[in-house]
């Protein structure tokens, strides 16, 4: 079969992944099979013409998350690194402009390629805590997946950065956070913390709300943490986060 994406977010046209959702069970399950890998992926940026701003924002933040997490992943590798770096540059320069001003041809191309590269990256290097939380949240609430990722991403970056510095100062992912900041901000002197600030400011500029808007409450955080710990995406996070760190992420994303 042939896959032709009409949004720029999931990158699923180049993965063997699909998601089965049950509203009755309030659960989502990830399915994987080589039979779900398209024979042809036809990625046409012009199919983004006329996409609503909210769709561009949500899908674009999903793509951004799927470039950042594989780049910092415990399973990062040279192939996905190259794709992630290029995708991050394209997303950083075009996502805000496309949502706020409308996607012109260069922005459409950047967003389409960022999504495509994100799909290739996640399929070959895994994801992390953002998608570890997004899996159970997608079943619990009727919320756009990319918006959920956007709400979680700043806190996940910040908590991972702090945990790496405290418990794994020689971890190869630690200098990558600083490189991520350079890629996102375009400043050679950017510090690792600037990546957190940049992502949070982008989320706010695009009008993506916190998870409380979709119904998550502080009382539900412990149960959410228990579910997120079991998600397959959590296994590729740079290091294992404690329950307290996971709870902090969820609370800060409200």
Could you walk me through the main structural features you see in this protein, from its secondary elements to its overall organization?
The chain is mostly helical. It has one domain: Up-down Bundle (Dehydroquinate synthase-like, alpha domain). Helix content is 57%, strand content 6%. It has 9 helices and 4 strands; from the N terminus they run ββββααααααααα. The strands form 2 sheets. Strands 1-4 form a two-stranded parallel sheet. Strands 2-3 form a two-stranded antiparallel ribbon. Helix 2 runs parallel beside helix 6 and helix 5 packs antiparallel against helix 7. The longest helix has 24 residues. It is globular. The N and C termini lie far apart (40 Å). The mean pLDDT is 95.
Structural class by secondary-structure content: mainly alpha
- CATH-scheme architecture: Up-down Bundle
Q: What is the number of helical segments per DSSP (H or I, 4+ residues)?
A: 9
Give the topology string: H per helix, E per strand.
Answer: EEEEHHHHHHHHH
What can be said about the biggest beta sheet? 2 strands, parallel
What CATH calls the topology is Dehydroquinate synthase-like, alpha domain
Q: How many structural domains in the coordinates?
A: 1
Beta-strand content bin: 5-15%
What is the subunit organization of this protein?
Answer: single chain
Instruction: Provide the CATH top-level class.
Output: Mainly Alpha
- Tally the beta strands: 4
Overall mean confidence score, pLDDT: 95
Q: If strands are numbered along the chain, what order do they take across the biggest sheet?
A: 1-4
């Amino acid at each position: 079969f042939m896959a032709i994406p009409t949004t720029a977010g999931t990158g699923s046209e180049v993965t063997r992944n699909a998601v089965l959702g049950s509203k009755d069970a309030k659960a989502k399950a990830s399915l994987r099979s080589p039979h779900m890998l398209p024979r042809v992926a036809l990625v046409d940026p012009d199919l983004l013409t006329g996409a609503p701003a909210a769709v561009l924002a949500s899908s674009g933040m999903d793509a951004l998350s799927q470039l950042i997490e594989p780049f910092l992943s415990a399973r990062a590798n040279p192939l996905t690194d190259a794709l992630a770096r290029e995708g991050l540059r394209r997303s950083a320069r075009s996502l805000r402009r496309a949502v706020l001003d409308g996607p012109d041809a260069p922005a459409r191309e950047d967003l389409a390629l960022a999504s495509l590269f994100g799909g290739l990256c996640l399929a070959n290097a895994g994801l992390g805590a953002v998608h570890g939380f997004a899996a159970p949240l997608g079943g619990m609430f009727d919320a756009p997946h990319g918006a959920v990722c956007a709400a979680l991403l700043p806190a996940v970056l910040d908590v991972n950065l702090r945990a790496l510095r405290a418990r794994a100062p020689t971890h190869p992912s630690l200098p990558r956070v600083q490189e991520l900041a350079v890629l996102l901000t375009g400043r050679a002197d950017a510090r690792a913390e600037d990546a957190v600030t940049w992502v949070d400011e982008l989320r706010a500029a695009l009008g993506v709300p916190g998870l409380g808007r979709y119904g998550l409450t502080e009382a539900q955080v412990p149960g959410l943490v228990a579910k997120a710990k079991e998600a397959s995406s959590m296994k590729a996070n740079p290091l294992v986060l404690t329950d307290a760190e996971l709870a902090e992420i969820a609370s800060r994303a409200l």
